[in-house]
Design brief:
About 30% of the residues lie in helices and about 20% in strands.
Length: about 130
Protein backbone atom coordinates (compact mmCIF):
# COMPACT_ATOMS: atom_id res chain seq x y z
CA UNK A 1 0.00 0.00 0.00
CA UNK A 2 1.39 3.41 -0.92
CA UNK A 3 1.73 6.25 1.59
CA UNK A 4 -1.11 8.07 -0.17
CA UNK A 5 -3.36 5.02 0.12
CA UNK A 6 -2.48 4.66 3.81
CA UNK A 7 -3.26 8.34 4.40
CA UNK A 8 -6.64 7.96 2.68
CA UNK A 9 -7.42 4.85 4.75
CA UNK A 10 -6.56 6.65 8.01
CA UNK A 11 -8.65 9.66 6.97
CA UNK A 12 -11.64 7.43 6.15
CA UNK A 13 -11.31 5.74 9.55
CA UNK A 14 -11.22 9.13 11.30
CA UNK A 15 -14.39 10.14 9.47
CA UNK A 16 -15.98 6.88 10.62
CA UNK A 17 -14.98 7.55 14.27
CA UNK A 18 -16.50 11.04 14.19
CA UNK A 19 -19.62 9.77 12.39
CA UNK A 20 -20.17 7.07 15.03
CA UNK A 21 -19.55 9.63 17.78
CA UNK A 22 -22.16 11.90 16.21
CA UNK A 23 -24.64 9.03 16.25
CA UNK A 24 -23.86 8.37 19.92
CA UNK A 25 -24.39 12.03 20.78
CA UNK A 26 -27.69 12.01 18.87
CA UNK A 27 -28.88 9.05 20.98
CA UNK A 28 -27.78 10.79 24.21
CA UNK A 29 -29.49 13.99 23.06
CA UNK A 30 -32.71 12.09 22.35
CA UNK A 31 -32.73 10.38 25.73
CA UNK A 32 -32.16 13.64 27.59
CA UNK A 33 -34.90 15.35 25.54
CA UNK A 34 -37.38 12.56 26.39
CA UNK A 35 -36.80 13.30 30.07
CA UNK A 36 -37.25 17.06 29.64
CA UNK A 37 -33.59 18.09 29.65
CA UNK A 38 -32.37 20.84 27.32
CA UNK A 39 -28.88 21.21 25.87
CA UNK A 40 -27.24 24.55 26.64
CA UNK A 41 -25.82 26.70 23.86
CA UNK A 42 -25.89 25.81 20.22
CA UNK A 43 -25.32 22.48 18.48
CA UNK A 44 -21.55 22.90 18.68
CA UNK A 45 -19.80 20.13 20.60
CA UNK A 46 -16.18 21.19 20.39
CA UNK A 47 -13.90 24.19 20.38
CA UNK A 48 -10.15 24.76 20.65
CA UNK A 49 -9.53 23.68 17.05
CA UNK A 50 -7.39 25.39 14.43
CA UNK A 51 -7.76 26.10 10.74
CA UNK A 52 -4.19 27.35 10.51
CA UNK A 53 -1.36 25.46 8.85
CA UNK A 54 0.77 26.51 11.83
CA UNK A 55 -1.24 24.36 14.28
CA UNK A 56 -2.04 21.07 12.53
CA UNK A 57 -2.19 19.22 15.86
CA UNK A 58 -5.45 21.12 16.53
CA UNK A 59 -7.13 20.49 13.18
CA UNK A 60 -9.13 17.59 14.53
CA UNK A 61 -11.21 17.82 17.70
CA UNK A 62 -9.71 15.91 20.61
CA UNK A 63 -12.88 16.15 22.71
CA UNK A 64 -16.62 16.73 22.43
CA UNK A 65 -18.99 18.04 25.10
CA UNK A 66 -22.72 18.52 25.65
CA UNK A 67 -24.24 20.07 28.76
CA UNK A 68 -27.91 19.64 29.72
CA UNK A 69 -30.12 21.46 32.21
CA UNK A 70 -33.62 20.87 33.46
CA UNK A 71 -35.63 23.60 35.20
CA UNK A 72 -32.40 25.03 36.58
CA UNK A 73 -30.00 27.00 34.42
CA UNK A 74 -27.28 26.84 37.08
CA UNK A 75 -27.07 23.07 37.51
CA UNK A 76 -26.95 20.27 34.97
CA UNK A 77 -25.27 17.21 33.54
CA UNK A 78 -22.24 17.29 31.27
CA UNK A 79 -21.16 14.57 28.86
CA UNK A 80 -17.52 14.64 27.70
CA UNK A 81 -16.04 12.42 25.02
CA UNK A 82 -12.25 12.51 24.88
CA UNK A 83 -10.18 11.14 22.01
CA UNK A 84 -6.86 12.40 23.31
CA UNK A 85 -5.36 13.74 26.50
CA UNK A 86 -5.85 17.35 27.50
CA UNK A 87 -2.13 18.03 27.76
CA UNK A 88 1.21 16.19 28.03
CA UNK A 89 0.64 15.34 31.69
CA UNK A 90 -2.88 13.98 31.17
CA UNK A 91 -2.73 11.52 28.28
CA UNK A 92 -5.19 8.68 27.71
CA UNK A 93 -4.68 5.28 26.08
CA UNK A 94 -8.15 5.06 24.48
CA UNK A 95 -11.25 7.26 24.02
CA UNK A 96 -13.18 7.96 27.21
CA UNK A 97 -16.75 9.09 27.92
CA UNK A 98 -17.30 10.90 31.20
CA UNK A 99 -20.46 12.21 32.79
CA UNK A 100 -20.42 14.89 35.46
CA UNK A 101 -22.89 16.93 37.48
CA UNK A 102 -22.04 20.58 36.94
CA UNK A 103 -23.18 23.54 38.99
CA UNK A 104 -22.35 27.24 38.86
CA UNK A 105 -21.84 28.97 42.17
CA UNK A 106 -22.14 32.50 40.76
CA UNK A 107 -25.13 34.16 39.12
CA UNK A 108 -24.30 33.02 35.58
CA UNK A 109 -25.96 30.30 33.54
CA UNK A 110 -24.37 26.91 33.05
CA UNK A 111 -22.43 26.76 29.77
CA UNK A 112 -20.16 24.39 27.89
CA UNK A 113 -16.63 25.11 29.06
CA UNK A 114 -13.10 23.86 29.65
CA UNK A 115 -13.68 23.66 33.40
CA UNK A 116 -16.28 20.94 32.95
CA UNK A 117 -14.04 19.16 30.45
CA UNK A 118 -11.10 19.17 32.88
CA UNK A 119 -13.24 18.12 35.84
CA UNK A 120 -14.73 15.22 33.91
CA UNK A 121 -11.40 13.99 32.60
CA UNK A 122 -9.10 14.55 35.57
CA UNK A 123 -11.30 12.38 37.77
CA UNK A 124 -10.59 9.50 35.39
CA UNK A 125 -6.83 9.86 35.76
CA UNK A 126 -7.03 8.84 39.41
CA UNK A 127 -8.02 5.28 38.48
Amino acid sequence: MSIGEEMKKVYDEMVMVYTETGRLIAVIEGEFAKKGWTAVGDHGITWDTSKSYEYPNFWFPYFMQRVYTKDNVKKGVAINILFDGLDEDHQIAYPIISCAVAERKDSGKLIKCNGILWAGSLALHKY
